[in-house]
Amino acid sequence: MEREARAKGTAALVTIGEFARSSRLSAKALRRYDELGLLRPALVDPVNGYRYYDGTQVGTARLVAWLRRIGMPLAGIKEVVALDAGAAAAAIRTYWAQVEAETAARRDLATFLVDHLAAEEVEMSQVDMDRETLGTLGIRYAAQSDPGAVRGTNQDAAFAGARLLAVADGFGERGAGASTAAIDALKPVAQGAVRGAVPAADLLNALEDAADLAARAVRDAVAGSGAPDESGTTLTAMVWTGSQLGLVHIGDSRAYLLRGGELFRITHDHSLVQSMIDDGSLTEDEAASHPQRALLLKALVGGPGQDGPARADVQLQEARPGDRYLLCSDGLSAVVDGTELAGALGAADGPDTAVRELVALAHAAGGPDNVACVVADVVAL
């Protein structure tokens, strides 16, 4: 068969064994990739089924092997190998940014678990003493959503209540419905939190369930749109239990903590530019003007995505009297820097004043996008 092929001018054809050695893929893997339509042989003998490959396919085969080594799913590899070099490079960068975002989320959860399990060694008497010292805690809060100075509609949503603080930044044809649906889905979960009596592990599970409910609510909200995959929302929310705050986060809306006069960002943006900042290929200043600064790696969207629904980050925050939290969409954080945020939060005499001042700062910076913000103070009752 190979002699016949060579006689027809295809002298570059090699057997599957030779091709496996040159491509660093096993014959078993090559047969599997043929079945999936990922890497077809140049010729299959119709009598004995032997597979023959063209030498020019070695580059594609090696790319497949490398992509498998970094853990890319086969469906993703099939898309990448069909692209030209530039587009393939961009697709690989986006995939790896998603991997790093997921790794960062798992690292944060692992850190929490280590701290949580270590804390279980503390004597109950000491825990009781700490509770007596802290007393009973509560929160005071305010929320505001504003269309900004440029947009004709407002797709952002903000909510603040005794159990739930949340902001969501909708996008696409059904963005407004998506942001509202995501927050509404969290309200029953937040109401179910028992004051000061929710074990940390149970709260983490409840937050995971809440994120799943929000994802389903968004899918339902955008199901009737022409392109459901292109409509969705970010979500950054905190559930108050009476002693701690449980955080649910996906997208590039943010949560900040003002403690002791210092402002800390406690969420990690799920965006392409953030991944480039993380790997050192982009600075914070460069990110502000990057043409793809709005490209999200994770969000709640109408479709399930290539590898299933994106998972939200969940974590716990121990509350202290005097803490002030800010949740906001990028309509605020993208145009008002951290120094100004800290100044406005520190100077405001209460959450109501703070949200008004923050929205005013966004307008003063041009108000190019919708703005949603929530401010909450932890207070001793």
Could you explain the architecture of this structure?
The structure is a single chain. This protein is an alpha+beta fold and 381 residues long. It is built from 14 helices and 15 strands. It has helices at residues 2-7, 16-23, 27-35, 58-69, 74-81, 85-119, 124-134, 175-191, 200-222, 272-278, 284-288, 330-333, 338-347, 351-364; strands at residues 13-15, 43-44, 51-54, 137-146, 156-160, 164-171, 232-233, 235-240, 244-250, 254-259, 262-265, 300-301, 313-318, 324-328, 371-380. The strands form 3 sheets. Strands 5, 6, 7, 8, 9, 12 and 13 form a 7-stranded antiparallel beta sheet that branches. It has a 5-stranded antiparallel beta sheet with strand order 4-15-14-10-11. Strands 1-3-2 form a 3-stranded antiparallel beta sheet. α13 packs antiparallel against α14 (351-364). The longest helix has 35 residues, at 85-119. It is elongated, with a radius of gyration of 26 Å.
Q: What's the story with the biggest beta sheet?
A: 7 strands, antiparallel
Number of helices: 14
* Rg (C-alpha, Å): 26 Å
Mean pLDDT: 83
Distance between the termini: 86 Å
Give the % helix.
40-55%
Short note summarizing the structure:
By secondary structure, the chain is α+β, with helices and mostly antiparallel strands.
